[in-house]
Write a structure and sequence with these properties.
The longest helix has about 45 residues. Strands 3-2-6-9-10-5-4 form a seven-stranded antiparallel beta sheet. Strands 13, 14, 15, 16 and 17 form a five-stranded antiparallel beta sheet that branches. With about 425 residues, the protein is an alpha+beta fold. The chain contains 13 helices and 17 strands. It has two domains: about 150 residues, Pnp Oxidase, Chain A (Roll); about 150 residues, NADH Oxidase (3-Layer(aba) Sandwich). Helix 8 packs across helix 12, helix 9 packs across helix 12 and helix 10 runs antiparallel to helix 13. It is about 35% helix and about 25% strand. The structure holds flavin mononucleotide (FMN). Flavin mononucleotide binds next to strand 3, strand 5 and helix 3.
């Protein structure tokens, strides 16, 4: 009896120790998972720390650490009139008048002999999607392969010079050889620009190339990159000296561009008079339509307003949308009750259109544009005002009006992170 009592006590203690150990282990592994996740997140956060250590420099000797390097594709004809392309990163604008481009080539390249023979070349600027063609043109020689044939790219005879350009590339520049310099390993060919041809799709409303839409391929450190986001208008640094911010206040820099855009989005209420292009508006609408919707109903209709009279009318009628008179375009996100179907009564359309609206606001931020959500729904008077101004059919209910334009730089993101608004369970 006495013996079994002792045995029971020992068993109870053993169970207790086991339970305590298991609990500790679970807590430890939970803590470990959290710490790993937290440190992974930390690496996504603020890049500014590394950027803020400019004085810690290490000498690398003689190395071509010049950024960004272009990834141009040079078009030439050989003696028999066969078109060839080669990739060149040792290149760039070298004179304004006459406008000239310098391209350095090694004598071993086929293109070198072609330029010497034809006294002409084209500079073809690729967008980032063309990286594979660019890389191919830089790996094989026209001595051995027909690179146009192998890539499926189309050679087009230059309009003004004896060199082919690549039809599929968004910018092509026809150059006439004016002079060359032997620099050592490379011969630097100087080409006078005779004509520049640009795909209309990459032009903005002012007829200038929109770098974000072009998204040119960049080369550096043995890798290809695409272009980053718009930072500031050139020549505005003097404003900074006067106390007005030059560069937008990217108070929080993230290694992850999506997080950076999310955290730097702000309600922009001050716009310059610079027009936004149709391509940019379409990019915003595509982002809007990428939002999730209940039962994939996509119960929306997007009205793009560019008529100054209508924009001014809306600015007058909507109490918090006066900035509509500063912009040249606005998107009105409407719920389409015909598409809402049997979910109409539950009001899912408003949630779906809200998700689309947020996508539009984020896309605007990512393109260097400014936008702000000005509400129509659920205010009866505002819905009526927008419906009348746009002559909307009754099955289209305006959720909001989003003015879109270029920000003056006066609006800033707010830090809304409040740990007390989170309940961890
Ligand atoms: C990204 C990249 C950049 C290049 N830049 C140059 C350059 O500036 N000058 C040069 O002579 N070769 C450069 N090359 C190598 C040539 O493109 C390569 O030798 C090519 O095969 C030459 O083609 P070709 O013989 O048909 O003229 C580069 C290659 C790559 C991939």
């Amino acid at each position: 009896m006495q013996k079994s009592k002792y045995l029971n006590i020992i068993l109870a203690i053993a169970i207790l120790v086991l339970v305590i150990q298991l609990t500790n282990k679970n807590e430890r592994s939970e803590r470990q998972t959290l710490t790993t996740a937290e440190s992974a997140l930390d690496t996504l956060l603020t890049k500014s720390d590394t950027a803020m250590k400019p004085f810690k420099k290490k000498s690398l000797g003689v190395r071509s650490e010049v950024y960004p390097k272009p990834a141009f594709v040079i078009g030439t004809y050989d003696k028999s009139g066969n078109p060839n392309i080669m990739t060149a990163a040792w290149a760039g604008i070298c004179n304004s008048n006459p406008l000239s481009i310098a391209v350095s080539m090694r004598p071993a390249t086929y293109s070198y002999g072609n330029v010497m023979e034809s006294k002409a070349f084209t500079v073809n600027i690729p967008s980032s999607e063309m990286a594979r063609y660019v890389d191919y043109a830089g790996r094989l020689s026209g001595k051995d392969v027909d690179k146009f044939k192998e890539t499926g790219l189309t050679p087009v005879k230059g309009e003004f010079v004896n060199a082919p350009y690549v039809k599929e590339f968004p910018i092509v520049i026809e150059c006439e050889l004016t002079t060359f310099h032997d620099l050592g390993s490379h011969r630097q060919f100087i080409g006078k620009v005779i004509d520049v041809k640009v795909n209309e799709a990459v032009l903005n409303a002012e007829g200038r190339v929109d770098v974000n839409v072009l998204n040119p391929l960049i080369y550096g450190s043995g890798n290809y990159y695409e272009t980053g986001r718009w930072i500031a208008k050139a020549g505005e640094s003097l404003n900074d000296i006067d106390g007005k911010p030059f560069v937008p206040d990217y108070s929080r820099r993230y290694a992850n561009e999506t997080l950076e855009v999310i955290h730097n989005r702000k309600s922009v209420r001050h716009f310059t008079d610079q027009a936004v292009s149709k391509g940019q508006i379409e990019a915003l609408l595509k982002a809007g339509m990428a939002a999730p919707t209940a039962a994939n109903r996509q119960p929306w209709k997007f009205y793009v307003v560019t008529n100054a009279k209508t924009l001014n009318l809306l600015a007058e009628q909507l109490p918090y949308a006066k900035m509509l008179s500063q912009v040249q375009a606005a998107i009105v996100v409407c719920g389409d009750m015909d598409k809402a179907g049997n979910l109409k009564e539950q009001g899912y359309w408003a949630q779906d259109c809200a998700a689309a609206s947020e996508n539009i606001l984020l896309a605007a931020e990512s393109l260097g544009l400014g936008a702000v959500w000005t509400a129509a729904y659920p205010y009866e008077d505002r819905i009526k005002a927008v419906t009348q101004a746009l002559d909307l059919p009754e099955n289209h209910i305006p959720l909001n009006v989003i003015p879109v334009g270029y920000p003056t730089g006066e609006d800033f993101p707010k830090d809304k992170w409040k740990p007390e608004n989170v309940v961890w369970q």
